[in-house]
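Thread: quick sanity check before group meeting

JM: Hey all, I'm pulling together slides for Thursday and realized we never actually wrote out the predicted structure for the chain we discussed last week. Dropping the sequence here so it's in one place. If anyone has concerns about the input, flag it before I start.
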Amino acid sequence: VKKIGQNIKYDYMIMKNYGVTMENLYFDTLIGSFIFSPDGHHDMDTLSENYLGYRPIPISDLIGSGKDQTSMDKVDVEKVSEYAAEDADVTLELFHKIKYELQKINMYKLCEDIEFPLVKVLAEMEYEGVKIDPKILKELDKTADKMIKELEAGIYKEAGMNFNIGSTKQLQGILFEKLKLSTGRKTKTGYSTDSKVLEDLRYQHAIIPMILDYRMVTKIKSTYLLGLMAAVNSKTGRVHTSFNQCVAVTGRLSSLNPNLQNIPIRTEMGRSIRKAFVPKDSTFKILSADYSQIELRIMAHYANDENMIKAFKNNHDIHTETAMRVFKLQHKDEMTGNHRRKAKEVNFGIIYGIGAFGLANRLEIKNSEAKEIIDRYFSEYPRVREYMENTKQFARTYGYVETLKGRRRYLKQINNQNATARAEDERAAINMPIQGTAADMIKIAMINIQNEFDKKKLKSRMMLQVHDELVFEVKKDELDTVKKIVGDKMKNAIKLNVPVEVEVGVGDTWFDAH
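JM (edit): ok, ran it. Output follows.
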């Protein structure tokens, strides 16, 4: 029997708690509505008013709201039955309407092939959760406290006085009045001290890097160390995040309560949080599988650029290749880490539609030099510029762009007379097909991996999806089988005209596996 629901993952989880596994999740009106038009609200009452011109009974009519709120089991059965029947009826009517609208614009297949089958995969991952070692978190917390104390002392010394580092007002006084640093953006309460402004001031005074580090460590402590400890479920001893399919217009998944997508990995402290993610017992290992430079490979596919495709086919490091070409280096020995770093910024910057000004900022070089680097990049990879121009032209004509699998993003400002508004949509037009295809790719891989696990009745489980990475808890005697399935399904999720590489690591913690 086909099941249709509004946010059907919720129903699936409730049933699973009672030992019932729902099969054949056929259609989700919440997801269908989001795919059809990502803007606005997608709760059932809003959808009912928008699509059916009908206002359902608000739940507050039954259980009240605020401090007087009661629970459904206290409400008269006749009232509950009317509410529940209406709920089911409205969902069914929405299904007919939304399915019709999706079919009209050829987007039903995306839902049928990717978004709807993914619901069950995500529900199983959420239900399974991931084990966190509280001892490791406590150790990291102690380290964080020590770092915070050291940074405070250093900041006070540079400032010549003690003050509340967390107070914007006091920080403004120290930086712009006492130390006379150049001011950036003005806000209602004085000059801004946000991270972008501080990054621009990084080399002006020794106090700035310390303040940035202080903010990073305090955020890691409050959001991740304390946050993860609080998120451990007392019944399971595991953390059960919620994955959301209806947030990012690019199709990327997001995660909430706690957000595991944003664990900062650029710093040693941030990366070490992964040490607390461990397998359920000694018969399991953690396996991490990560797409290698997937967005650049998708860019090569879209642009069909000969030089870029050749680099990937010959298994060259694309950043080294770009550095050699853009900086006109004859031999690899001439290349420094700085050349590669700059090339990496250019490669990723181009995907996000970066201009000379943005690149100059990132590389801390003059605008003229940045413009020269971009020009040289396009002369080495001419089809990339062609792809960008064609994509913007497509967006101007049709008002949207789409991924290889037909996921769309509508761009309302693409023909705006205002250059700033237009530029933002132009950048989105270049980036979305690439980022969105990467999102579609990992979702297809997740569905196919789960199907294979089920078919082989494996004890191993997929636990997390973080951007281009999947994390598994693998039974030791299933390691070879799982490696084979994961590698195969990730590499072959969508066929590109360049090879797709997946890096697989195994360890006793997520940190060791990655």
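AS: nice. The first strand starts at residue 3 and ends at 5. The mean pLDDT is 93.
JM: adding both to the slides.
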